[in-house]
Design goal:
By secondary structure, the chain is mostly helical. It is built from five helices and no strands.
């Protein structure tokens, strides 16, 4: 999926690329059969279609309100986020709000950074929070 993403990001903006991983190939030396993959997709086609419908519905809707967008802008400025990081922040914020019906970025608005390493560390903290993951120490 990484190679697919890298090839496509040259032509399509990152927020318009979606990758649905059907099976894991992590450390697996056997290539799954066509029937195996087809069966997995067939069993989950309703979930895939539901995902596509949600994308269509949310793509043009205003998920984030003015306050949330302002907080994202402030975080982007304070951390000097790259365009790619800003897009990730927006997408993760939308996902978090849709998933939990709640989005609180106030904790991160006053974060600041003095180096690229610090920016990356702070951005990872924000991403982990939005993904409901524990921050890496």
């Amino acid at each position: 999926s990484s190679g697919f993403y890298q090839a496509n990001v040259k032509f399509i903006s990152p927020e318009n690329i979606f990758i649905l991983k059907v099976i894991s190939d992590y450390l697996d030396t056997q290539i799954p059969s066509k029937k195996f993959v087809t069966d997995i997709i067939s069993k989950n086609i309703n979930l895939v279609m539901e995902f596509i419908e949600i994308l269509k519905e949310t793509k043009n809707s205003n998920i984030l309100n003015y306050k949330e967008l302002s907080e994202i802008d402030k975080i982007t400025q304070n951390l000097n986020l790259t365009k790619s990081q800003q897009i990730q922040l927006i997408d993760l914020s939308k996902y978090k709000k849709l998933k939990d019906n709640n989005l609180d970025l106030s904790t991160f608005v006053n974060l600041e950074t003095k180096s690229k390493r610090e920016r990356r560390e702070n951005f990872d903290i924000i991403k982990n929070n939005l993904n409901n993951l524990k921050a890496n120490n």
